[in-house]
Write a structure and sequence with these properties.
By secondary structure, the protein is of the alpha+beta class. It folds into three domains: about 140 residues, Periplasmic binding protein-like II (D-Maltodextrin-Binding Protein, domain 2), CATH 3.40.190; about 130 residues, Dipeptide-binding Protein, domain 1 (Alpha-Beta Complex); about 220 residues, Dipeptide-binding Protein, domain 3 (Roll), CATH 3.10.105.10. About 30% of the residues lie in helices and about 20% in strands. The chain is built from 19 helices and 20 strands. The strands form five sheets. A ten-stranded mixed β-sheet has the order 10-11-12-3-13-18-14-17-15-16, with helices on both faces. Strands 6-7-9-8 form a four-stranded antiparallel β-sheet. Strands 1-2 form a two-stranded antiparallel sheet. Helix 12 packs antiparallel against helix 14. The radius of gyration is 25 Å and the shape is globular. The N terminus is likely disordered.
Length: about 550
């Protein structure tokens, strides 16, 4: 066994003992000294024979720095138009560039594009690209590549269901794209929407020459990017390795390599951080905080996140005629269940933070301030269920209800879901819970709107636009409208939004729409997820509120 491996085993063993010792900080052993970047040596040049040249001098070893980030789930593939989770987006954000980028402050800043203009009617957004951009295949990146990216994502024959095809295209009502010159391109939209620039900034620009020559299967295995790091390898359920692109003009980055590791178990991620095997870990549950902070090698950093966590009511045809799904068609039942779950207690006991329950799908400060979050009131839940015609039987059960949830994607999600199920059981709803593997089981069903009748999920949000947060339900058949909620008043609101450019009027409309959702809820509103990261003390890096793990600015200390 190597010295490094034996050290890692020792540290993991000590960490396991630490976690069982009443949560106290470790004092029994000093940390094993390892630096955050992993150094890999380049081969040393062979010597020239002495008869032909002077005595050889040793060539300096050039070390590569590697930053290792551990997430809880793997990518489902490497197709840029099929990215469907934040864990995937975190990796793709480093392989691909976007026209503009959403900065940590929430501002929208130029990236591959220098500037943009929008037409008077708000239906055409034109971008001017920076000069000298190059794809990872060595070809110049031009307006043709941008146009190809959008058209490829919108092509129904490709059957993409990721963020670009399933969220961005629906939200901007994509109509087409026009190449105006080598460096100028225009995106055409069917309606005006105020967050259009931010939505378009989520599209990963890829390169026509390479992608047009590959099958969909080849593209999903061998991405050709446009960002500061290029793809090296993907070992399924283990890691994705990226390598820095030399002389990448739009960005300067510190680390030569990024290794995105897959470690599903939270305790194993924490142990790997303490052992020095990884440098950044995501989704650190509360019971790991003292151990990480106490050992001395890493620090837990927390932020108030923007991800909206909710229990969805699937109202679509998939469940509408099932015994439990039919019950949810009654909005009075959906309102009653809001009172059944003690969200602040879930936050305090299972997530270790004080939260205010969400009153809508929009992050503060863009939410409707007049809406008060449903309080925990189990007696009110019982009363409303009685009035809806669902009285408890002798065994205390009113009806049974199926519920699905993925495992390991969100902070302490397994226990959160169990708590929700128990709260519903306490008011007479017998929950038949099915907790599933996130990537292989839950996500494929979610994409097809086949999770339910109840399901637990979170959706990314923003602080820069309320309309952006609402865009998950921009159309009844939107890919991200997992509930298939179809309230006509809500969708009339979208028509009104497309007809105004006045921010005060827009706020009036969105407030009205959120009130409609409050009274006819497609979601059981939960909380905005806090995010906790473990960071090696040898790495300079600060987390963002929007759950984007952006390490382009990370540097070794």
């Amino acid at each position: 066994m190597s010295k490094r491996k034996s050290q890692s085993v020792l540290v993991v063993t000590l960490f396991a003992l630490l976690l069982t010792a009443c949560g106290g900080a470790a004092t029994a052993a000093a940390p094993v000294a390892t630096s955050a970047p992993v150094a890999t040596s380049a081969p040393v040049a062979t010597s020239v024979p002495a008869t032909e040249a002077p005595a050889p001098t040793e060539v300096p070893v050039v070390a590569k720095t590697r930053l290792r980030i551990a997430q809880s789930v793997d990518v489902q593939g490497l197709e840029p138009s099929n990215v469907n989770s934040r864990a995937e987006a975190n990796i793709f954000n480093h392989m691909f560039g976007q026209l503009f980028e959403i900065a940590v402050t929430g501002s929208l800043d130029p990236y591959l594009a220098d500037s943009y203009t929008i037409s008077e009617d708000g239906l055409a957004m034109s971008f001017k690209l920076k000069e000298g951009l190059v794809c990872h295949d060595g070809e110049p990146l031009t307006a043709e590549d941008v146009a190809y990216t959008f058209e490829r994502a919108a092509d129904d024959a490709n059957a993409f269901t990721g963020n670009t095809a399933g969220f961005v295209m629906d939200s901007i009502d994509y109509q087409g794209v026009r190449v105006d010159s080598e460096l100028e391109v225009t995106i055409l939209m069917g309606k005006y929407t105020s967050p259009a620039l931010g939505l378009i900034s989520e599209v990963y620009i890829h390169c026509k020459d390479s992608y047009s020559a590959m099958s969909l299967e080849e593209a999903a295995a061998s991405p050709i990017g446009s960002g500061p790091y290029k793809f090296v390898e993907w070992v399924k359920d283990d890691h994705v390795l990226l390598e820095k692109v030399a002389d990448y003009a739009p960005r300067t980055v510190a680390y030569d390599e990024l290794e995105w590791k897959v470690i599903p178990e939270a305790s194993t991620r924490a142990a790997a951080l303490i052992a020095g095997d990884v440098d950044i870990i995501t989704n650190v549950p509360p019971d790991q905080h003292k151990g990480i902070n106490g050992y001395g090698r890493g620090t837990v950093k927390g932020v108030s996140g923007t991800r909206r966590m909710y229990v969805g009511y699937n109202l679509g045809d998939e469940f509408a005629n099932t015994p439990d799904g039919k019950i949810l068609q009654d909005k009075n039942v959906r309102v009653a269940l809001q009172y059944a779950v003690d969200v602040p207690t879930i936050c305090k006991t299972l997530l270790s933070f004080e939260c205010e329950r969400a009153s809508s799908m929009v992050n503060p400060p863009n939410n409707n301030a007049n809406l008060k979050a449903y309080p925990y009131d189990p007696e009110m839940a019982k009363k409303l269920l009685d009035e809806a015609g669902y009285k408890a039987g002798a065994d205390g059960v009113r009806f049974e209800m199926g519920m699905m949830a993925g495992k390991g994607r969100y902070l302490n999600d397994v226990n959160v879901v169990l708590a929700i199920a128990q709260y519903l059981t306490d008011v007479g709803v017998k929950v038949n819970l099915k907790q599933m593997e996130w990537g292989s089981e839950f996500v494929p069903l979610l994409r097809k709107h086949q999770v339910g009748p109840l399901f637990f999920v979170g959706t990314g949000g923003a602080t820069w636009s309320g309309v952006y947060d609402m865009s998950d339900i921009s159309k009844p058949d939107a890919a991200t409208n997992y509930t298939e909620w179809s309230n006509p008043e809500w969708f009339e609101g979208w028509t009104k939004l497309s007809e105004t450019r006045d921010s005060a009027k827009e706020k009036e409309i969105t407030d009205g729409m959120l009130e409609i959702m409050y009274n006819d809820p497609p979601w059981l509103f939960m909380y905005f997820q806090p995010d906790f990261y473990g960071v090696n003390n040898d790495v300079n890096w600060e987390p963002r509120r929007d759950e984007i793990v952006d390490v382009l600015l990370a540097t070794p200390k």
